[in-house]
Structures
1.
Amino acid sequence: MQVNPAVTALVATFYCFLLSTPPAVRGAERPNIVLILADDLGYGDPGCYNPDSKIPTPNIDRLAAEGIRFTDAHTPSAVCTPTRYGLLTGRYCWRTRLKRGVLIGSSRALIEPDRSTIAALLQKYGYRTAAIGKWHLGFQDPEQGRQVDYDLPLRPGPVTQGFDYFFGIPASLDMEPYVFVRNDTPVEPLLGRIAASKMRRRGGGGFWRAGRISPSFRHEDCLPRLTREALWFIQDHQANYPDRPFFLYFALTAPHTPWMPIEPFRGATPVGYYGDFVAQVDWVVGLITAELDRLGIAHNTLVIFTSDNGAHWLPSDIQRYGHRANGPLRGQKADIHEGGHRVPFIVRWPARARAGAVTGRLVCLTDVYATLAELVGHELAENEAEDSYSFLDELLGSKPQQPVRSAIVHHSGSGMFAIRKGPWKLILGLGSGGFTPPRRLEPTPGGPKGQLYNLAEDPAETRNLWLEKPDVVSELTQLLERYRASGRSR
């Protein structure tokens, strides 16, 4: 599908507006790191993962062509808050107080005060760090109350958990309060209220919940505003700190609801507002990578692009648009099945990493921590990144120097567990454990108590082998229980 010419014009106009600083010199020997986390982007949305995708994603596809594309990468949870905790700490979130579901905009800080994050780690090695976008990990000490007081400094928060700079929103774009936060302070006071809005699927203007809102906040403007902030940080760093590497954690608010593509992305795809919003996400990726090129730092910048879980894409959406946002995988966001947690995962580092490679190595987003730790020469402590395995050797094409992950724990939105080892995936329970009905099923007399699939032979998880492979069920059940009881899987 050809990109709408109006989109190309918008890109050129917006990009020229943003390029206000002169090119800077190249950075230090250690690479800059840009981690782009899309929100609810499915495995089957980018063309590089799904040749039949109806959404043009030329910039994501370019990243894959110039880097390494992982085909068996997973989020530690099928919903957003737990995934973000796992990504930043290298530890499964179900080990914390959050056993299921997600935080809301008024939730207190989830990351423990003594828990290291990727940002805190990189700070120790001279990196200047920034988080731009959706935080969704809470603010302020949970011991001081149940809800966040936005009239007080938002500490603990990003600036106490390893980030030198933060600009973003408290939680998902459909969760109040609707306000931008800079470092530890709202940019504007929460003076107004906004009524709830219905989903696009139901003829609404884009789903969000009723609640508090700051005077100038508009949902449609959120992603462009965050993009400008991310580009500004890169520009500012190169202008003022050219001898230091930087780490940018850019947590997008899209294509999570509300589906709010800006003009002229509306109508740019045949997949409705969702497809148009994914096209805008791809455009944002292109702006970031183009800025790295313009400043002459792309060669030694490690870019990671991924998603926090699968797409919230219903069977009725597939039927209506003919687009499989989660590709051939079973299920969707929040589900324990593959569509809930297998995601696009692309790494580009022209200076060192292989280009144009595709790997089926099993990885989890928790593994980013150990990988970056090995990159900077940091040896993990006993109580650090307990569920993280380095895949740096995969990037460099070298023999593994660290233990290679052999198993991974999956966790659904409702708290259902699964474990994957080799081709085998064991699910402790019946049903999806998430958004797809039936969510939970009670076992029938003589029937299976859970689910077991051989993903090598049955990637769509259509044949439950629980009763046929009792030895595999027993082995994986014991392994999962050991991981849960020991407090670590590394």
2.
Amino acid sequence: MQMGLDFNLVEDLVAGVDEVGRGPLCGAVVTAAVILDPQRPILGLNDSKKLTEARREKLFDEICEKALSFCIARAEVEEIDELNILHATMLAMQRAVEGLSVTPKLALIDGNRCPKLSVPAAPVVKGDSQVPAIAAASILAKVTRDREMAAFELMYPGYGIGGHKGYPTPVHLEALARLGPTPIHRRSFAPVRAAYAVRGVLSNGFAEV
């Protein structure tokens, strides 16, 4: 359920929830939910995109150490292709909140909509720059996904995944056209569908005859 409130007035057992990876052409969408401990403040929390990689890595460890509870969840490529990216993101957010070891009294969701949850929830537009718990969630999700992309760089060389993190940059699109899709590419995304079509491969993975 959702509710309207002044989230600045609510501090007790609030879970911040955010996602990373809706726009990329490959890899899972990763979400996180975090309940911060008011007795153990963490300085410097902000939208993960506004922090350096080194700062995110340091805060990642501090959040994991000091948070009352946190959960990192995901929706895999197959789920994204089956459900679409919006519904897969909502599913991953549900998993993150449900995976918390402490039940929050309220979940604040970055963005303009909420997943269906068993606890009260409210969306917060640009919440990762306004709500510390959402900022913490954005950091956990981004660091986790970036690490996965670095690993995929080694598994699938030539695509530059470690650099562009799967987003449709010119480098990625050129490699996709030249090398073709990998098993981690999202077949429901237009550039990936186009790459399969060029190679005479149907969306079910079988070659045309």
3.
Amino acid sequence: MLREFIPVLFSIGVAVAIAVGAIVVALILGKVGQRNQGKDLAYECGKDPIGGGSARFSVKFYLVAMIFILFDIEVIFMYPWAVSLMEFHRSGLGWQVFGLMLVFVLLVEVGHWYAYKKGVFDWNKRG
């Protein structure tokens, strides 16, 4: 019975050996290179880390992010609906399902219209 587990134990041993070997090699090679202030700085997007770590964002940034999520959720719900619409049509429920999706899209568009009237999409407006 133990003979059946030998390949599994061998695989676990190889995985542990690779993990420990990678850590040991990283420790050895990491201490070989010369350190300077440029290498010790945090690197993010090619920009020098100047200023505070938590920059303030405008509220408009978060509003646009929420509207993007709204579009994203709309597409997530519409794709499976569009795929299965033909099946609903064959069963005689096609127009009812189409009407429900139309109500959903209209409700989402009312939200977009409200955001537009509030000036969320106007980047030149302060606030």
4.
Amino acid sequence: MDYLFFLLAYLIGSIPSSVWIGKRFYNLDVREHGSGNAGATNSFRILGKRVGSIVLIIDIFKAWFSTYVLSYMANDQSTENMLGLGMVAVLGHIFPIYIGFRGGKGIASLLGVIIAIQPTAALFSILTFLISLIFSRYVSLSSILAACTFPATIILYLKSDNNALIIFSIMVSVLVLFTHKKNIERLFKKEESRVKLPRRIFRRKLKRKRN
């Protein structure tokens, strides 16, 4: 029975919202445009803010659901079981069975897992991401910094003694670095694309304060 929940976690994590929405309403595959992956960031870039926001919410929710709800249904909300279900869902997002195992990078889904397991650490990571995005306008760099903030929060701030959680937090950073290898190369070459919306919002806020 336990294996069934892990299978469900993978199938739920594999739901390729960006690809399905893109093909259904825009007659295009987001993986053939922009950065070439099926994540929320590329959806924002190719399909627009509204669709990108929907994809982001779905990617976060499906991992949160797999981690929290499925562990509850399995009557085992131990950290180890929740982490196992969550990581299987993330792998489903990265390697989705429905669309030839070509998915996204798993950042939003990882956030869903973190929210389910450790909301405080998730909040620190979200704040790090937003602050970095506002000032740098690099989604990739912000994602990397947010991922590195997670183990730092677990180990240094929360001083957790849960070995499974500590190992998981370190694995998150390693996974994000691995999935962002090309982005890191482009960052060093100064070829990475920037987003414009956060900077505009930031400027508007500054203008309002000055007025």
